[in-house]
Design goal:
315 residues; mainly beta; Jelly Rolls; 2 domains; six-stranded antiparallel β-sheet; 5 helices; 22 strands; 45% strand; binds zinc ion
């Protein structure tokens, strides 16, 4: 039985489109183009490591492998989720991800990637690309090869606090000046449709995957309808943005104190604003913006106190 929250050290990834905004979370980022903070990751490209308690030094992947009881003995050959914070200092390439069936066959048993975004902050006038206007696969393919980007891509203005569900097969891109918290399936499989003809320092463009993109894109684009549910518990307001087969995601807004009961296989909690503490029996675990902690299966009843916002995800 483990009654401690597990705090994880974030991992930083340099990206050509990255910037320095992740400093606003209190992070000591390694470069001036740090695009991603991997908060909860058991992916081979970067594993989160526990920083406190009896599991200090263990990776999330090791805990999933050898201490499955922490996750309520949830099933699966790998930890199913990946949580990131992204700082888009420039437009990201336009991309699409495969579903599980396609990725399994074409990407060496990788998972597909359904993801979702909470807009933590953004510049005035910021936009994302979400979906497209082609009516058939043939039309999609020809609009891509003929570079008809303005007609093809659907742009959507965004503001702080917006939420987007991005199922596999959705053409998407995060625009310049946007910071998101992303919850996704544990996969790194991306097909790049368009990269704005950008060249790197050596004059090279990044590879595009037009054939795969056309194969996996949902045509015509379909925007899923979903109900947002809000419930209050003491001084905590919990907004459920999405419940899908891969994950559920909530925002917790805390202004005071709230008694809660952890009844899920596990909860992944990312602090995006303010600070507070978790009180469990006689122990107090403080947290602040930029912290990421997991509440394990047996955690049970606890009190949250403080003034804070968290994005919480679970299976
Ligand atoms: Zn994506």
């Amino acid at each position: 039985m483990n009654f401690e929250p597990l705090f994880f050290n974030p991992i930083f990834m340099d990206r050509i489109w990255g910037g320095t905004e992740l400093r606003s979370f209190g992070y000591d980022i390694p470069t001036e183009t740090t695009g991603e903070c991997w908060a909860f990751s058991a992916h081979p490209n970067g594993q989160s490591v526990v920083k406190n308690g009896q599991f200090a030094g263990k990776t999330l992947g090791e805990l999933w492998e050898y201490n499955r009881e922490l996750f309520g003995n949830a099933e699966g050959d790998r930890f199913p989720l990946l949580t990131k914070i992204l700082d888009a200092n420039q437009d990201l390439s336009v991309q699409v991800h495969p579903n599980d069936e396609y990725a399994k066959v074409h990407e060496n048993g990788e998972l597909g990637k359904t993801e979702c975004w909470y807009i933590v902050d953004c510049k005035e006038g910021a936009e994302i690309i979400f979906g497209h206007h082609a009516q058939t696969k043939e039309e999609l393919a020809s609009m891509i090869t003929e570079n008809k980007w303005t007609e093809l891509l659907n742009k959507v203005p965004v503001k702080k606090g917006d939420f987007f569900f991005v199922p596999s097969g959705t053409i998407h891109a995060i625009g310049e000046g946007i910071i998101i918290l992303e919850t996704q399936q544990n996969s790194d499989t991306t097909y790049r449709v368009y990269d704005y003809d950008r060249k790197d320092a050596n004059g090279n463009t990044r590879e595009l995957h037009v054939e795969q993109s056309v194969a996996v894109t949902t045509v015509p684009h379909k925007a899923d309808e979903y109900d947002v549910k809000v419930k209050t518990n003491g001084d905590l307001t919990a907004t459920t943005f999405i419940e899908c087969p891969y994950f559920s995601v909530e925002k917790w807004e805390l202004q005071g104190s709230s008694i809660n009961n952890q009844t899920k296989p596990f909860l992944l909690c990312s602090v995006i604003e303010g600070e507070g503490s978790i009180k469990k029996d006689s122990a107090v675990y403080p947290f602040k913006k930029g912290d990421h902690f997991l509440l394990p299966s047996d955690f049970g009843s606890f009190e949250l106190e403080g003034s804070s916002e968290l994005i919480v995800s679970y299976l």
